[in-house]
UniProtKB/TrEMBL annotation, chain A:
Signal peptide: none annotated. GO terms for cellular component: plasma membrane. Its main location: membrane. The keyword Zinc-finger does not apply. It is a multi-pass membrane protein. This is Branched-chain amino acid ABC transporter permease. It comes from the Bacteria. InterPro entries: ABC_transp_permease (IPR001851), BCAA_transport_permease (IPR052157). Belongs to the binding-protein-dependent transport system permease family. LivHM subfamily. Coiled coil: none annotated. Pfam families: BPD_transp_2. One of its GO terms (biological process) is amino acid transport. One of its GO terms (molecular function) is transmembrane transporter activity.
TrEMBL record, chain D:
CDD domains: ABC_TM1139_LivF_branched. PANTHER family: HIGH-AFFINITY BRANCHED-CHAIN AMINO ACID TRANSPORT ATP-BINDING PROTEIN LIVF. This is ABC transporter ATP-binding protein. PROSITE patterns: ABC_TRANSPORTER_1, ABC_TRANSPORTER_2. Belongs to the ABC transporter superfamily. GO terms for biological process: L-amino acid transport. One of its GO terms (molecular function) is ATP binding. Keywords: Amino-acid transport, ATP-binding, Nucleotide-binding, Transport. The lineage of its organism: Bacteria, Bacillati, Actinomycetota, Actinomycetes, Streptosporangiales. Residues 6-243 form the ABC transporter domain. InterPro entries: AAA+_ATPase, ABC_transporter-like_ATP-bd, ABC_transporter-like_CS, BCAA_Transport_ATP-bd_LivF, P-loop_NTPase. Coiled coil: none annotated.
Length: 296, 414, 415, 267
């Protein structure tokens, strides 16, 4: 029973990190209907900035710089690449982000080289024991930050002008433009927010229980992709639910691989994708994705 | 009905829309040998232009035939890789470029083709500690069935594909790559697991297309496996390109473009949308299967590691760089993407910004990745029709006008 | 239709005309009384490395390649082989099978041997070509499934042997006994599978119950695996994953209060980990099974190598990749010298010369290696080293190379 | 006299190589109502898109001419600048944000307003004009009826406090009763000083609401004049009012439910 609880708690905690990444996908998708395949490189960039800066300026300023830097990089990508492609279809724009990701990832990975870079976080390898369940402090922080970030964005989407503009643009770009919504600003804003979230996610992907940032860190972003789809690519709530679901599924598949032969041999790694296919078969728009609302 | 001369907001004025309905007499593209004589051309064109074209085609065919007599193994192999890639890319372009279904799972169907061939053609053997199954079929039969198997795999997936659009479809197909690789690693009895498995050489009419200790000498040149594979490879590519052009410029192509641009309108016009969507998925998988078989034959060993995400993205890059929706473009993109890293690695010493192995700086592989990623972005930004757009004669005003009209259907609901 | 027929005819003519080409039919011949083959000219012998400088094994590739450059520079400075300079041709494949195969077909026609091939999948993909080209090849991989080819030489112990020795060590020194549970975390793929073959054999022989956890190369967080080990109540953990994954596992188990010894494959440790927060855990109870002599060992040849390497590549990490690169280059160098003495620098001659070494030892520590057969590992004895921040190269010797009785009774199934 | 709410001179526009507008010249006086009539494909929607700067979203571009509104040149401005200049376009087919609530739709309408502090004031006015929007304020807009959606679309545009409202086919697809209700609102809006450029296929309705009217054919102005002149013209009567050429008068186009369902131009 304790074992199950521990698996669940740890699954939720790593799921929270996936949720942060998935939220980045969702925000860009909501405002521009583009699946941002360059997200992994934003994540790597944010993590890299924290890793190289924390020694000189301390962890918290470095984290701020990482978040700001990744946000700026996101906005820059939007401004330099995507904005010039305004006429392209969403599919084309999604494809172009793959190219952006390749270029950025090669450069950052080259800088990281073969190193494993610690991020100098304050949590270290401290853990909390609750009734026999062990959980790393860093993971509790991740859970807290993810829930907080997602709540903030839910509220912002609902109540701020920025949120209304973003939702309007997501639904109908031409009409939003007719309302005086500045589409460029909306989509650059979305990219910046996605970058900031990616940097936060990078932080939690690279602190305990992992030793630090290396060039493979960005692969985690690929696990968040099914999380975003399972939740529904245009739903912020969905990002949270999808992320947690993936985290728990993975933890359970790993934890019980000894008991069930099916789970053995790396099943945990494909479980998110299997789950995604099942969800898509039942609900093509994902668990929380919006269907067209119409009377007809 | 709204004002109807103008095209709608939904049409993709960029790559896809303009690329698909270009002048049917446009050249097939730099890399694809002309599709077998003049069968694909409308009869009215068979005037003087027809002869000129036939002559150009013959020259190209002759040039292709001459390659194995001159080129060293490196170039033959690179060429064969490019041919296989071109076949796969043409198939993907039918699906993604023409029909607008984003697929990031092409690598999966390549793997189905490659491994089905290996399994059917191989004799049972023991290797690396496990027993490998094999049916020992004659290789040509095995290849044909492998290609069909890839098509069937596509058919099985098409119900899922039919339910999804755009990026969601892309991600679902991405899942295929991961699931497929998982199965390849597990199904050791068929695939050989991580170590992969030797690919039985093709045998046509008793002739083994493989290296042998005493290679047959043709006109003074010893013919190894690569030399011999060159000819069927080129023929298959020509056939694949010819058939794809028929699809693109014929009724199915128009139906698919209409579905891509206006699915609801297409349905209303009586186009059987679901059937076309499934059909193009199957056709594209068949192409992938064929490419997979050819790749396996060139590799001589099929290793699951190869059929991963990177390969799937490579194929997407090929069609984007070459030009969405165009057969010649896909082939050109395939040549570009598959040759670029090899050339940079080989001639890296002579290129100023590329560092030597083991030195600091941008290594050849990195330079290749950066160039390829940048080409990806630059093509979409500045060459919406891809490499193909660089060719003269492609931007005939008449065809553009047609493209505009075909894309029109007012302002569809979002 | 007429056009088509004319077309075919013209194509045939063109093909025939093409026949007047001068495509070379490969090297070979004799010069100065020495038989030569591809890759050997009057004044140079070319050997090639297919390495990974940009992919997941970039760290390994860089160290190996630089060490090999160092070796061949030293060899050439000492007069080369057979009056010829030995040139190392390096091609980076970034761990991509297709690039590697392409690079191979470029370099193979002008190479006499391959002192470095990184990546099991790549070695496997090239295997049949290597055999038909008769190229002496030394992969930087230690999966037993690569055994069984006359042309492919694995150096030192294989992963399975290492794990057999590891279990023997844990039983002997860490007090594991029959009925205990022992965990083994391993990567999917060749490396993990090979290690697993050894641990399964050894666990069964020792009456231990093996708890297996497989992970993928992309997994970074080992919390779930650590929890599973704790749940199973393992008394020790065998580690055959990437260094970063090993660090995560060690960190989590320590934080969970699961204090057990770790015995790791040589690829599950990297010096860089000593800069991360898990360093103290690794220094406490982490043992690495390796055939490579640690640079802190008291072996004159290794001390000299460390000095030379640091002079040639200042500031570069000194780890087992350097040792491995240097020794594998030396194996090829020695084979070339012997082949020269036998006046046969053809590929077959080089392989024959290499295969005549029954107790290869060039003063770099470790157990002598037997290269005369290829279905068994060259050695069954490896060092057991411990991470140590203060030690040169990050590790120090915990136990000198020894062949456990368990390893003696183990016969890996050759591939 | 204040400058006209809109002045268009020799406006040309094209979709790629296909010309869509060829030298349009028209004017909407300050506080006036002008109507544009024309068949399918005459370029009416293109004209409005050109004025509001969203033609590029539809693959087209303005290729020549001048557009000024209240003395400001609009040509080449981004849509948000045009909104800020006081010109707001209600697109054909309404295009309410279906997934957002009615209140949020109205809020979206105020995003481009020159003075956002007056959003509350604007909302009160819209609610007064369309009480149903206040009632349904928390419902998703996609669940409104067609007429309610049209009201929302107009209300949303009013949130920006426009000087000139560009209305594209407000009666499209609506029942006669609803159409009359919308027509009444347009007059009401105009009474508060907002100029209106109205596109309608329901020519009778348009001519009743407008002071001036223009007839577009294949992208060019074929006829123009005061609404009364055009209503009296044989050609307009025949082609747009569905009336046989007799001198039958149009008196029964009176307000309210009495509007006669007119034959629509090949819809």
């Amino acid at each position: 029973m304790t074992a199950l609880a521990e698996l669940l708690v740890n699954g939720l905690a790593s799921g929270a990190v996936y949720a942060l990444v998935a939220l980045g996908f969702v925000i860009v998708h909501r405002s521009t209907e583009v699946i941002n395949f360059a997200h992994p490189s934003l994540l790597l960039a944010g993590g890299y900035l924290v890793a190289v800066l924390h020694d000189d300026i301390g962890f918290w300023p470095a984290l701020g710089a990482g978040v700001a830097g990744a946000a700026a990089l996101g906005a820059l990508v939007e401004f330099v690449v995507l904005r010039r492609l305004r006429s392209g279809s969403h599919g084309t724009l999604s494809i172009v982000t793959i190219g952006v990701d390749i270029v950025l990832t090669v450069e950052i990975a080259r800088r990281i080289g073969a190193e494993v870079l610690p991020l100098g976080d304050p949590w270290g390898d401290r853990v909390v024991q609750v009734g026999g369940v062990t959980i790393a402090q860093a993971r509790i922080a991740a859970l807290g930050v993810a829930v907080a970030a997602i709540t903030v964005f839910l509220l912002a989407f609902k109540y701020t002008s920025w949120g209304v503009a973003m939702r309007a643009a997501a639904e109908d770009r031409a009409t939003a433009a007719l309302m005086g919504v500045r589409l460029g600003r909306v989509s650059a804003g979305a990219w910046a927010v996605a970058g900031a979230l990616a940097a936060l996610a990078a932080l939690f992907l690279c602190v305990f229980p992992t030793p630090g940032l290396d060039r493979a860190t960005s692969f985690a972003a690929l696990k968040a992709l099914p999380a975003a789809v399972i939740g529904g690519v245009d739903s912020t709530t969905g990002a949270l639910a999808g992320g947690l679901l993936i985290g728990v599924t993975e933890a359970l598949a790993v934890g019980y691989q000894d008991e069930a032969a099916l789970l053995r041999g790396g099943f945990a790694d494909i479980a998110p994708y299997l789950l995604m296919i099942v969800v898509l078969l039942i609900r093509p728009t994902g668990l929380f994705g919006t269907r067209e609302l119409a009377r007809a | 009905m709204p004002d109807s001369i103008p095209p709608s907001g939904r049409r993709d004025p960029g790559p896809a829309g303009a690329g698909t309905l270009a002048d049917p007499a446009a050249p097939a593209g730099v890399a694809s040998p002309p599709p077998g004589g003049d069968g694909a051309r409308p009869a009215s064109r068979a005037g003087r232009g027809g002869w000129a074209r036939a002559a150009a085609g013959l020259a190209a065919a002759a040039a292709v035939c001459a390659v194995p007599f001159y080129a060293e193994a490196f170039w033959l192999q690179a060429g064969l890789f490019a041919m296989a890639a071109a076949i796969g890319a043409i198939g993907l372009n039918l699906l993604t470029g023409v029909a607008g279904q984003l697929s990031m799972g092409h690598a999966f169907f390549l793997a189905v083709g490659a491994y089905t061939y290996v399994w059917l053609a191989a004799e049972p053997e023991r290797a690396a500690g496990h027993t490998l199954h094999g049916l020992g079929w004659p290789p040509p039969l095995a290849a044909a069935v492998a290609v069909a198997a890839a098509g069937i795999a596509g058919g099985l997936f098409s119900p899922i594909a039919g339910r999804l659009r755009g990026a969601s479809l892309g991600i679902a197909t991405l899942a295929l790559v991961f699931l497929g690789q998982h199965v390849l690693f597990r199904a050791e009895a068929v695939t050989g697991g991580v170590n992969g498995r030797a690919v039985p050489p093709m045998e046509i009419l008793g002739l083994r297309l493989a290296d042998s200790p005493e290679p047959p000498v043709v006109l003074g040149v010893p013919f190894g496996g690569l030399e011999m594979l060159w000819f069927p490879g080129a023929a298959l590519l020509a056939l694949a390109a010819w058939f794809a052009r028929g699809v693109v410029y014929g009724r199915p192509g128009r139906a698919l473009t209409t579905i891509r641009d206006h699915e609801i309108a297409a349905g209303a016009m009586g186009v059987p949308v679901a059937r076309y969507r499934a059909g193009v998925f199957v056709v594209s998988s068949v192409y992938a299967g064929l490419a997979g078989v050819l790749l396996a034959l060139v590799f001589q060993r099929a290793v699951p590691e190869y059929f991963g995400l990177a390969l799937a993205l490579d194929y997407l890059a090929m069609i984007v760089i070459g030009g969405l929706g165009s057969v010649g473009g896909a082939a050109a993109g395939a040549v570009f993407v598959s040759l670029l890293p090899q050339l940079l690695t080989r001639y890296g010493d002579a290129i100023p910004f590329v560092a030597q192995p083991g030195e600091e700086g941008l290594s050849p592989s990195e330079a290749a990745r950066v160039l390829y990623g940048a080409a990806f972005v630059a093509v979409l930004l500045y060459l919406p029709r891809g490499l193909r757009g660089l060719l003269p004669r492609c931007a005939a005003p008449a065809s553009r006008a047609r493209a505009v009209r075909a894309g029109d259907a007012g302002d569809p609901p979002r | 239709m007429r056009t088509v027929r004319i077309g075919i005819a013209a194509a045939v003519v063109a093909c025939l005309a093409a026949g007047c080409s001068g495509k070379a039919t490969g090297g070979g011949g004799e010069s100065g009384g020495v038989k030569t083959g591809p890759g050997v000219t009057k004044d140079t012998i070319t050997v090639s490395a297919l390495t990974d400088l940009t992919g997941p094994y970039a760290a390994l590739g860089k160290g190996v390649t630089q060490a090999q450059k160092l070796y061949f520079d030293q060899l050439n400075a000492a007069g080369g082989v057979c009056g010829r300079k030995v040139e190392l041709l390096v091609r980076d494949h970034g761990y991509d099978v297709q690039k590697a195969v392409a690079a191979y077909s470029e370099i193979a026609p002008r190479s006499a041997a391959l002192p470095q091939v990184i990546g099991s999948p790549i070695t496997n993909a090239l295997r049949s070509r290597l055999e038909s080209d008769k190229l002496l090849t030394i992969p930087q991989a230690w999966a037993h499934t690569l055994l069984g080819s006359r042309y492919i030489q694995l150096t030192g112990t294989t992963y399975d042997i290492d794990m057999v020795n590891a279990v023997a060590f844990l039983v002997k020194e860490k007090g594991l006994k029959a009925g205990d549970r022992i965990g083994h975390i391993h990567l999917e793929g060749d490396y993990g599978q090979s290690a697993l073959a050894g641990s399964r054999f050894a666990a069964e022989k020792s009456g231990l119950k093996l708890v297996e956890q497989q992970v993928k190369a992309t997994d970074a967080d080992m919390t779930a695996q650590a929890a599973a080990f704790r749940k199973a109540g393992v008394k020790a953990i065998l580690v055959s994953v990437s260094p970063k994954q090993a660090a995560s596992l060690a960190g989590v188990t320590a934080a969970m209060g699961l204090k057990v010894p770790f015995a790791a494959s040589n690829s599950a440790f990297a010096q860089q980990l000593l800069a991360t927060p898990v360093a103290p855990v690794l220094e406490r109870e982490y043992y690495v099974m390796t055939a490579a002599t640690p640079f802190s060992a008291d072996v004159p040849g290794v001390k000299k190598l460390a000095g030379d390497y640091q002079k040639a590549f200042p500031g570069q990490p000194l780890d087992s990749s350097v040792f491995s690169g240097y020794t594998t280059a030396a194996i090829v160098g020695e084979a070339l010298k012997k082949a020269c003495a036998a006046k046969d620098l053809t590929r077959e001659g080089i392989v024959t010369a290499h295969r005549s070494a029954k107790a290869f030892d060039i003063g770099l520590g470790g157990a002598p290696q037997d290269y005369s057969q290829w279905t068994r590992p060259a050695s069954r004895a490896g060092y057991i080293v411990k991470p140590d921040k203060a030690a040169l190269g990050g590790t120090r010797v915990h136990q000198e190379p020894a062949e456990s009785d368990l390893a003696k009774s183990y016969n890996p199934p050759a591939g | 006299m204040s400058p006209p709410a809109l002045r268009v001179r020799d406006l040309t526009a094209a979709y790629g190589p296909v010309p869509a507008l060829r030298g349009i010249t028209l004017e909407v006086p300050a506080g006036g109502v002008a109507a544009v009539l024309g068949g399918n494909g005459a370029g009416k929607s293109t004209l409005l898109r050109a004025l509001s700067g969203v033609l590029p979203f539809h693959g087209g571009a303005v290729t020549g001419g001048e557009i000024t509104a209240g003395g400001t040149s609009l040509r080449g401005l981004r849509p948000d600048r045009i909104v800020a200049a006081g010109v707001v376009h209600v697109p054909e087919g309404r295009h309410v944000f279906a997934r957002m609530t009615v209140a949020e739709n109205l809020r979206a309408g105020s995003l481009g307003a020159r003075d956002r502090r007056r959003a509350a004031e604007a909302r009160d006015r819209v609610h007064a004009l369309f009480p149903i929007l206040a009632e349904r304020s928390r419902q998703p807009a996609g669940l409104l009826s067609g007429g309610e959606q049209q009201m929302l679309a107009i209300g949303r545009a009013l949130m920006a406090g426009p000087d000139l409202l560009l209305l594209d086919e407000p009666s499209l697809g609506l029942a006669p009763l609803v159409t009359a209700r919308i027509a009444g609102t347009i007059t009401e809006i105009n009474r508060y000083g907002t100029a209106v450029l109205l596109i309608e296929q329901n020519a009778a309705l348009a001519l009743r609401l407008a002071d001036h009217a223009y007839v577009l054919e294949t992208g060019a102005v074929a006829l123009h004049g005061t609404a009364d002149e055009l209503a009296a013209s044989d050609e307009v009567r025949r082609r747009y009012l569905g009336v046989a050429t007799s001198g039958e008068d149009e008196e029964d186009l009176g307000p309210g439910p009495a509007v006669r369902p007119l034959a629509r131009w090949a819809g």
